[in-house]
Design goal:
about 260 residues; alpha/beta; two-stranded antiparallel ribbon; 9 helices; 13 strands; globular
Length: about 260
């Protein structure tokens, strides 16, 4: 955590376009008191990041619901502009915060797109920048093996189609350790048709190979979905989530507010 303070104090010097944070899950092994202290220190450091520099938080697997709940509620989520997470982290998050589909014990195969979109929508509505909420969170990049979902509050981000497609492309190339997608080494695992919600009247989306990024809207929030060409025999899987989120951020544009 001291590194975070040193890092933030040096931001003025090298003036980054974006800050990416990770590692909050490493607090799990500490005592409750130490964790509380560290989390407050992290919040203070994140608060010191200059206005106008977007902040992305990459989550990692956790087993302590108290820590996850604290990250959501104790000012971490409202301080960052963007969050990246996978299906384990998303399900654990909704269980820890009693969100939608919290009774779901685990995913059965490929995570249901409607369930995922309900939870992500709830995160942005409850903890994002919506009317009456003092929060900077406007973007969530969800990645699972079969597909990716980039969800944004309207009016804050642009170029989402390219961003979600770039994240999916790097998942295929990095896992197979190739420069470009090798069609003979990948396969499609994503559903060819799905409902966009399990909680309200939903539209049905069918996969169009000519326009693989699907888009839909829900009460001021826009969803961009793309299937992933999954590597049959992956050579590299460590850090794949980081690579996906980084690539997506590289193509994302944030409007100045």
């Amino acid at each position: 955590m001291n590194m975070l303070e040193v890092f933030v104090s040096s931001l003025e010097e090298f003036q980054p376009d974006l800050v990416v944070l990770s590692g909050l899950h490493m607090m799990e092994g500490q005592t409750k008191e130490m964790r509380q202290k560290r989390l407050l220190e992290a919040v203070a450091s994140i608060s010191d990041i200059p206005m106008g520099v977007p902040v992305h938080l990459e989550l990692a697997s956790m087993t302590d619901p108290e820590l996850m709940s604290a990250i959501i509620h104790q000012q971490v989520f409202p301080l960052v502009n963007s969050v990246g997470l996978n299906e384990q982290e998303l399900l654990f998050l909704t269980q820890a915060a009693s969100g939608p589909h919290a009774s779901l014990a685990s995913w059965n195969g490929v995570p249901d797109v409607g369930v995922v979109s309900d939870i992500v929508f709830w995160i942005l509505k409850e903890h994002g920048r919506t009317p009456g909420k003092a929060s900077d969170l406007t973007r969530i990049h969800f990645h699972t093996l079969a597909y990716h979902l980039l969800v944004t509050v309207d009016g804050y981000w642009a170029n989402q189609v390219a961003a979600v497609a770039a994240g999916a492309r790097v998942a295929g190339t990095q896992a197979c350790a190739t420069q470009t997608i090798d069609a003979s080494r990948v396969f499609l695992k994503a559903p060819l048709e799905f409902a966009t919600s399990k909680m309200e009247e939903a539209s049905t989306v069918s996969l169009n190979p000519h326009e693989p990024v699907s888009e839909w809207h829900r009460d001021g929030v826009t969803f961009h979905y793309t299937p992933v060409l999954v590597c049959k025999d992956p050579l590299r899987t460590v850090g794949l989530g980081d690579a996906i989120s980084a690539e997506g951020l590289l193509y994302s544009e944030i409007y100045p507010h």
